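Tutorial, part two.
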Amino acid sequence: MKNTPAGRYQVAAYIVGGLLVLLVFAMVMKYGFDNHDFMWVALVHGYFYIVYLILAFDLFRRSRWPMRRLAEMILAGLIPGMTFIVERRIARFAREVQPAQ
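Running the prediction step on this input gives:
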């Protein structure tokens, strides 16, 4: 992955998506089995989600995409599994229109 806004967004999307899947597991452990050992994942996901939002906004701003695409990226970090789907779409859009650097 390149050191471009799209490349940085891709890395952040993979990290946030992975952490979100782990967060679902942590919630099942907490509420299903009364095991609080994995709750650190919530904090880590929260911090990475903030970085993800900044990188998504940077890519959106540089690419001059419609607001709908930014909303898509924001929601993707909140819905388990959606991050990976949206990341592929955003990567395709970024390849079609190279953002101004």
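The chain has one domain: 5-96. In part three we will examine how such features are distributed along the chain.
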